[in-house]
Design brief:
By secondary structure, the chain is of the alpha/beta class. It has 15 helices and 8 strands. The chain folds into 2 domains: 3-181, NAD(P)-binding Rossmann-like Domain (Rossmann fold, 3-Layer(aba) Sandwich); 184-324, Orthogonal Bundle (N-(1-d-carboxylethyl)-l-norvaline Dehydrogenase, domain 2). Helix 5 links the parallel strand 5 and strand 6 (131-135). Helix 8 (181-203) packs antiparallel against helix 9 (208-226), helix 8 crosses helix 13 (281-296) and helix 11 packs across helix 12.
Length: 333
Amino acid sequence: MKKIAYLGAGTWGFAIASLLANKGYSVTVWTRRKEFADELQESRAHPKLAGALAPENIRFTSDLDEALESADMIIESVTSSGIRSVFSEVLRRGPIRCSVILTSKGIEQQSGLLLPEVIAELMGVPESPLIGCLSGPSHAEEVVCQLPTSVVCSAYDPALMMEIREMCNTPTFRVYPNSDLLGVCFGGAMKNIMAIACGISDGLGCGDNTKAALMTRGLHEIRKLCVVKECKPETLNGLSGLGDLCVTCLSTHSRNYRYGRLIAEGFSPEGARQKIGMAVEGIYTCVSALQLGRKHGIPIPITEVTHAIIYEGMHPKLAVQALLQRAIKEEHL
């Protein structure tokens, strides 16, 4: 049975590590914070996931060497902003020879790279058969309770894609293969921006009509921008696109949605982030997406006003007005 080095001890890392351990895999979960690793090792409980206990075949550590020792596979659930630094540390210990499965969702700022591209660049190759991902509409709070969930796996190598499927699939956690690795990752990254916008909309009391429009036009924005990353637009009709967009924009489990709602209710962007107390990926990805849009001359108005609220001090009500005042064009899908 494989030995898995799991990098990241957030709620999602805890949930997927537990799923794998329950299937019999030996899992060592790494976090930078020693006190947190010690707490998890002793209590077997995650402070953000009430009632969930880690299986006994999970070990928690803050020692990266211990986590990586004899690992047959590396799975990460760090943050999109931290993935380069974490894997730089991994590579300082020698070349990566085992598979790397990404579950974080984001686009790197400045470079515009999707997370598989970041890892490949660090490995010194344009792409690698060792890199895959797991993505889709899934809240850790529901996965640990074994509520029915359907997600997508992908990889540069079809054999690795099917291996991920077999490893992670359970009666309540269904894993569908999709060969469009970059498309799967792009949808998972961009939906976080739209969730912030939907949270702001709900916080302002704009209603379901507004949110439906934001989600629909948001998906259109994602499809327009995905082509610059050579993704397949049709991938965004599936679980890693529309599915992930729905679950993130419609659920209070979503940190990005809650972050937007807090801003609409009067919190500053920084105050809302601190109130959430965990990573809000859309804050980071909003910058990356806007950089991509401007570089390629693609208008992405929902992303633009969301960025203006977070980083330029625009009042949420003015952002709504700005969207409503845009010229109406024929709908193209």
